[in-house]
Design goal:
383 residues; alpha/beta; Rossmann fold; Glutathione S-transferase Yfyf (Class Pi), Chain A, domain 2; 2 domains; 5-stranded antiparallel beta sheet; 9 helices; 41% helix; globular
Length: 383
């Protein structure tokens, strides 16, 4: 799979941009603040319906504009598709596929597949559990696009359940009788059903990713492993079981029962605090180097290598299971020492399409020769 043309309108710093792309390596070179990352961010948005830099769409729309448009022509074998999304902050986004408007934004998922490595990925190792949950869920959705609907259902149920719990908690704090809890059991059933599906997919993903992450780490930092991935479930912990859930195929029925038992166990605390305390939204992926958790123990260089290994493992996994994704390396070489630069470049140089951003040409390793674009003053010019 590769993108042959990228078109932007009022996206980030661009009034308009038209970029012809091809297979192999394309490097976007220019000083910081000129819009290099904006280009690859747009490609990543088409793949995930989100940005790797911000949590909402509003910053993606150029100041003074009321909407932004991202459009890309994509080739997969003999198949050619045109994918487009219109970003409308405060309103529903609109999607088009092959010029048809009879699609939802999430119907675009799977048309463009990317794996993006950026400086923000250091948070996968050093950051909060939410960063690792997002990593898992984006990769799960890349593998199984229908999971976007499951994730949306889970978030909807979670929001409704939290609203009910919050109203009960506030009423009790002010001496009232409290809201009617008769519907809480119904929301528990809905949360357990969608949560079990999401949890099953995450566990299957961790099982598939674990050996690939260990191999990828060995490629970029020989002798520094092994790498371990451990999924810790909040529901198992609340139910008095080992929170380190076994990765691999899991019964949806058993996982739903586990979630229901955990919700029953923590209900008094949830009513007191007004929030849902167990479920996939409270789980974590523990990363290990050798016997120790990477968070708090790994050095800065080891953390970079581990974050890189997770992305390379994701790339290898998607490549095994379907069309080869577009690999995006956003301003990462300046963050790596010479050894890691060369090892990373050698690992990805043969990719069907690799998009690289860098401040200066010297930051791009020699192994990644290909097409170069100069990015400056709101323009993108092929050199």
């Amino acid at each position: 799979m590769h993108v042959t043309h990228l078109s932007l309108a009022d996206f980030r710093s661009y009034v308009t941009a038209e970029v012809e792309l091809g297979p192999g390596v394309s490097s976007f070179i220019g000083p910081n603040g000129q819009g290099k990352t904006n280009l690859v961010e747009a490609v990543g948005y088409l793949a995930t319906l989100g940005s790797h830099r911000v949590s909402s769409d509003a910053p993606l729309v150029r100041m003074g504009a009321d909407r932004a448009v991202i459009r890309a022509a994509v080739v997969e074998g003999e198949r050619r598709q045109l994918v487009e999304i219109e970003l409308n902050p405060g309103r529903a986004n609109r999607a088009r596929l092959n010029r048809s408007t009879q699609v939802r934004p999430r119907d675009l998922l799977g048309v463009v597949r990317t794996v993006l490595f950026a400086p923000e990925d250091l948070e996968l190792v050093k950051g909060d559990p939410g960063e690792r949950r997002r990593f898992l869920d984006e990769l799960v959705t890349a593998r199984v696009p229908r999971l976007a609907g499951v994730r949306a259902d889970y978030e909807r149920v979670l929001k409704q359940r939290n609203s009910l719990l919050k109203s009960v908690a506030m009423a009790r704090r002010h001496g009232g009788r409290g809201a009617d809890l008769s519907t809480l059991d119904v929301w528990d059933q809905h949360l357990a059903r969608s949560g079990a599906e999401l949890l099953a997919q995450r566990l299957a993903l961790v099982a598939a990713l674990r050996p690939l992450a260990d191999k990828a780490y060995e490629r970029v930092a020989p002798g520094g492993g092994p790498v371990g991935l451990e999924y810790r479930g909040s529901a198992a912990e609340a139910a008095g079981e080992d929170p380190a859930l076994p990765a691999g195929p899991a019964s949806r029925e058993e996982l739903a029962a586990l979630l229901l038992a955990a919700l029953a166990e923590v209900r008094p605390r949830e009513i007191e605090r007004g929030v849902t305390l167990v479920g996939p939204h409270r789980d974590d992926l523990v990363l290990r180097l050798g016997p120790l958790p990477a968070k708090g123990y790994a050095s800065h260089g080891e953390s970079w290598s581990l974050a890189l290994a997770l992305r390379l493992a994701s790339y290898d996994l998607l490549k095994e299971e379907g069309p080869e994704p577009v690999l995006v390396l956003d301003d990462v070489f300046a963050e790596l020492d010479a050894r890691r630069r060369e090892r990373l470049a050698e690992s990805v140089a043969g990719g069907e399409q690799v998009l690289v951003t860098a401040a200066v040409p010297e930051d791009v390793p020699s192994a990644l020769t290909g097409t170069r674009f100069a990015v400056a003053d709101g323009g993108v010019e092929r050199e």
